[in-house]
Fold:
Amino acid sequence: YNEYKSYLRMSVEEERSQLVIWRSPLKTSFYFLNQLWIELYKLLKFFLSRTYLVVFLVLFTVSSYAAVHIDGPHTTYVEMIRAQSSWCLYWVGLGILSSVGFGTGLHTFLLYLGPHIASVTIAAWECKSTDFPSPPYPNKITCPSGEYSPMLITIFTIMSKVRLEAFMWGAGTALGELPPYFMARAARLSGQKLDDDDLNELDDIKDKSDLDIWSKSKLFVHDLVQKAGFFGILAAASIPNPLFDLAGVVCGHFLVPFTTFFGAALIGKAIIKMHLQMFFVIFIFTKSHLEALENLIAKIPAVGPMVHAPFIEYMEKQKLKLHSGGKLGGGSQESMLSKLYEILIIVMVGYFVISIINSMAQQYHKDKHENDKKK
Structure:
């Protein structure tokens, strides 16, 4: 009987895995729209059941609009708060996109935060200062104009300059891990069986001895979080870990308190992991290591000599722009690199959107199958 149940579940999972936009575009789109309507309806019910929250949001919106559009002595402070809040929310949003549980995240560290830290690092070493004029910083980095006292530039100096955006990005990644936790917790409290693929797979493989590395990693994360509690969650969150969604599901399923789960995730992702990632990027892009990278590129067989000269020219132009207030033209090479970077971002965002469509369509298929079984 258990083998038959396992066979049926595998058949349904196989059917669900085929539900992707490039194989069944009409069916996938139809299921996605149905699931989108269900999620929007849930969101509407959530707000209608919490009148105090709606009143607070309306009052906050009206007061914010009035503070921004009515001139007075407060205008300068409002503009400062708005600029800083926008900057923080920007990085929190990118962090959420990086870890939100739609099957795959948008790799915003590689696309946004990593390049930002690298740009600040290069500028700090070139300008001998991190006191960049604001504005245009942080939208554009230029060296301080006129006479200024050079600073002693170290890894920790640059860390201090980018710590706010790095922390906000890390906090966003911690917030993005909450949906799996709340879904698993709600299912457990309501007495329903959580139909989660990872948990079902763990039930199937936990007694097996011949496992691949990926399955062993899943079991290790499951046992670490379940047995070590706060410090297990902290350890799992403190390193780049594609299996942390599973940690959220396990914590929700075993009713780990929200403060324990989110506190450990926030400390691990926004403080410990972010400092490790900052250190790595700043270390790679320090002046001496950039020079070593230039020499390494020149030694690459065949392509090295062709890439080395354009790379050196590009870096020199970036340094000149720092001293010219960003007004120096970048030329056709920089224009080509910018276009390639824009294309990369478009491709990554497109892939992310498609993954959301596929994931929501598969979620609708899963819920539909569960409802059919109950009937």
